[in-house]
Specification:
alpha/beta, Rossmann fold, globular
Length: 270
């Protein structure tokens, strides 16, 4: 009897804007002393068809920038959970983010929030957990704020790593202002683009084509939430990663300008 041929696993055609961040984290997991270790992403990518657009541009530089931003966001979540181990994380525009699986402390509560189609991709690629749930919503449609199953006075951290990069200044400001008004006290970790990311220098840093750009992310946040208690901005160039080139390290000395050529992580507390 001839042995039966093993079935070829189904490979999903996932939109590039969802797949590329997952794939970049997967690649980083193979780097010695990589900034992010993400075996969940690596396993999920074996089930995905990588479109040619995933490889466009200087992919190594894009990878370094992406995983450095991811690492900076991870640190903010870690610090929040160190203080509030039973806290609530609301991940807005979750896409194919795997932060829950990488950071879960066994006690926190996690809400992945995105449009329906993206949530369906999550359900296909990732396993379920009792302590995290999916809700439909986005950075521009904010009705989900009234549906959050978060107890009153529970500590909350809102994370938005990628979604605001596709929004213009008006939508971004409305999102920041609305979450500030909806929670009497909370924290947020958001990624905003600098106003020089579209330049040749910004593109060499690995930046993409974003819908907004701020000369000062801190001032932009303060204009939306003048009552915030603390605003801190973290540039990817603050990282001491040895993979930054010499001219990158020189640029890191320019404290104001370095925050304009890449996206930055902004931590807000009010």
């Amino acid at each position: 009897m001839r042995p039966s041929n093993p079935q070829t696993p189904q490979r999903y055609q996932i939109p590039v804007n969802l797949l590329q961040p997952l794939w970049l984290r997967s690649r980083e997991s193979l780097v010695d002393n990589g900034l992010v270790y993400d075996p969940i992403a690596a396993r999920a990518c074996t089930r995905c068809h990588l479109a040619a657009e995933c490889f466009s541009g200087d992919i190594d530089q894009k990878q370094l920038l992406h995983v450095t931003l991811t690492q900076l966001c991870d640190r903010q979540v870690h610090q929040f959970l160190d203080i509030y181990p039973d806290g609530w994380i609301v991940n807005v525009g979750a896409g194919l983010d795997t932060r829950f699986y990488r950071i879960d402390n066994g006690r926190c509560h996690w809400i992945e929030l995105d449009v329906t189609e993206n949530l369906l991709w999550r359900q296909k690629l990732f396993h379920r957990s009792e302590r995290y749930q999916h809700l439909c919503g986005s950075v521009s449609e904010l009705g989900w704020l009234e549906q959050l199953p978060i107890p009153e006075n529970a500590p909350v951290l809102i994370v938005c790593e990628h979604a605001l990069l596709d929004c213009d200044e008006e939508v971004t400001a409305r999102f920041i202002r609305t979450i500030g008004l909806n929670f009497s006290a909370a924290s947020a970790c958001i990624v905003l683009a600098g106003d020089k990311t579209h330049t040749q220098l910004g593109q060499k840093m690995g930046s993409g084509n974003y819908a907004h750009g701020f000369s000062s992310a801190q001032h932009a946040v303060m204009n939306c939430l003048p009552w915030v208690r603390q605003t801190r901005v973290f540039s990817p160039l603050d990282s001491n990663c040895g993979r930054w080139k010499l001219w990158h390290k020189w640029l890191s000395k320019l404290s104001g300008y370095k925050q304009r050529v890449t996206p930055v992580v902004v931590h807000i507390q009010w």
